[in-house]
Specification:
It contains 9 helices and no strands. It is mainly alpha-helical and 330 residues long.
Length: 330
């Protein structure tokens, strides 16, 4: 019996169908990560985040004012800044995650749970890439927030030294120069005793420059030596400790010679003036510590809320990616 050497078209088609039905070869595998979709979503999120941040800066600057009673308060500005950062993360991260999920390839061989996990991962990766890109563009801003807290501690430690250093300036116009000037103020009604000469001698006329003893009524600005000496005495003790008695006595002698006061009154003036200078230094130190503590608290609050807003952005990006992926597979 002879067998046919050729197959009909119908039998050939039937055989191909049977082969396809019993084909056990594994399907072609596709990559679980669509980096193109992640890059697209990250670029969109970074761009939108940058635009919203610039808009927020513009709105914030337009709402503040250097004039008293005008513009928003510091508390209101801080709260609105936190809200704006959170809204920026919601919008930018949501858009980036949605695009990453919508533009990724279709995983035909993956189960529903695996597809959900991959979409979530795509949204998270898009958020991560966009956050790194935004941080690279805004390095100075993030560095100022983080560095502010570090510098605040150093400012608290060095606030007293800075305040004291500014107070002991003895040059003209400095803070300490004012207190030195007050030492040589002449009270109304105080008249210096005229200079006397020994019996049998005639007064002599000196051609030298008038000093404190030769011209007690002269202006103290004409004698820079006494001013510089007193400034050095006060600066040496740095207004952080009581003035020694010998320095009080010596400065009191200079003050008494120039103002006509008694030695006791001159020493009392020196003590009172030194106490006023010390009080001003303590006030400056307190203000410096308060400012440094306020800067530290503001920096810590900004860092914490920035952390919270970034977490919210990561969640929104991951959630939006699942919606985008579901619409992609629909």
């Amino acid at each position: 019996m002879a067998f046919p050497t050729t197959l009909s078209a119908e039998s050939t088609h039937t055989g191909r169908v049977l082969d396809d039905a019993y084909d056990v070869r594994p399907p072609r595998s596709t990559s679980a990560v669509s980096w193109g979709a992640i890059a697209a979503g990250a670029a969109a999120a970074a761009a939108l985040s940058l635009i919203l941040l610039i808009l927020g800066v513009g709105l914030g600057l337009s709402s503040v004012s250097p004039w008293t009673g005008a513009g928003v308060t510091a508390t209101t500005l801080g709260v609105t800044t936190i809200v704006w950062l959170t809204v920026t993360q919601l919008l930018a991260s949501g858009m980036g995650g949605y695009l990453a999920g919508r533009l990724r390839t279709k995983w035909a061989d993956a189960q529903a749970d695996e597809v959900y996990f991959r979409d979530t991962a795509h949204g998270f990766l898009a958020w991560a890439v966009s956050s790194l890109a935004t941080a690279a563009l805004l390095t100075s801003v993030i560095g100022s927030i983080v560095g502010g807290g570090v510098q605040a501690g150093a400012t608290v430690a060095g606030g007293a030294a800075v305040a004291a250093t500014g107070m002991v300036q003895s040059e003209e116009g400095g803070s300490m120069a004012y207190f030195v000037d007050t030492l040589f103020r002449r009270d109304a009604g105080v008249v210096s005793a005229p200079a006397t000469t020994a019996p049998g001698t005639e007064p002599t006329t000196s051609t030298a420059a008038p000093g404190p003893s030769a011209d007690p009524a002269g202006s103290y600005l004409d004698n820079e030596r006494e001013l510089a000496e007193i400034g050095r005495i006060l600066a040496f003790h740095n207004l952080s400790e009581p003035l020694p008695e010998d320095d009080v006595r010596h400065v009191g002698q200079l003050v008494a010679q120039r103002t006509g006061l008694s030695q006791a009154d001159a020493e009392k003036r020196v003590t009172d003036t030194y106490a006023r200078a010390q009080s001003q230094v303590r006030e400056a130190e307190t203000d410096a510590r308060a400012a440094a503590d306020a800067a530290r608290k503001a920096s810590a609050t900004a860092a914490l809320w920035l952390f919270v807003s970034l977490l919210i952005g990561a969640f929104c990006a991951s959630l939006a990616a699942t919606f985008g992926g579901r619409q992609r597979d629909a």
